[in-house]
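Please check this.
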Amino acid sequence: HIANIKPEDLKEYLGTSRYEHDVYDISGYYGVVTGLAWTSVGGEILYIETSTHKDKGAKLTLTGNLGDVMKESAMLALEYAKSHAAELGIDPTAMEDQSVHVHVPEGAIPKDGPSAGIAILTSLVSSFTKKKVKERLAMTGEITLRGKLLPVGGIKEKVLAAKRAGIKEIILCVDNKKDIEDITPEYLKGLTFHFVRDMQEAVRIAIPQ
C-alpha cells in the first residue's frame, strides 16, 4: 500500500514547521532595503533599516545583534556614502551633523558577515535622499572603500529564499554570475538578475532617479 501524502498533509504528520519563511513586506518606506542571508538551514531575506536625525554629535548606532564584520560593513558604507555623496545623488549638506541608526530586525538572532554591505549602503542612500528603493528587489554583496562590489557565498540558498519571499529582482556582483549559471533554470523563472561591478551602479538600479 502506497500512501498518497500531499503538501498540506505534512503538518499533520510532522507537526508545525520549525522555520517560518519570510515574505517580502516593506513597500512604501524609504531607508529600508531587502538583503539576503545564508543560514545553517538555508537562505533567508534580511531587512536593513536606516534612520537619520539632526545631531551635533553625529554618531553611528548599530542594532540588531550584529557581529564585528557586519558592523565594519556598516561603518565602511557610511564612510563611502559621505565621501561620494554627490555621485550617489545625496545632497552633501543633508549629511552634516546627522546621526545614523542602522537596525536589522529580529534582534534575538545573531548576524554577521560582509554580504550585507551593499544593502546597508543602499539603505543609507535611500534614507539620506528620502527616496524609496525599488519594490520586490533584493541584493547581496561585499563592499570596499574603493567602491567595488565583491562576490559572496551561499548564492543558491539566497536566491531560492528570495523567490520564496516574492522577490522579483536581485542585484549581485558580476563575479557571482557563475553561481547563478549553476542553478537549475526552472528555479530562476520569474527572477531578473542585475550583475554589477561597483556600488554606484547597484544604487542606480535600486533607487531609480
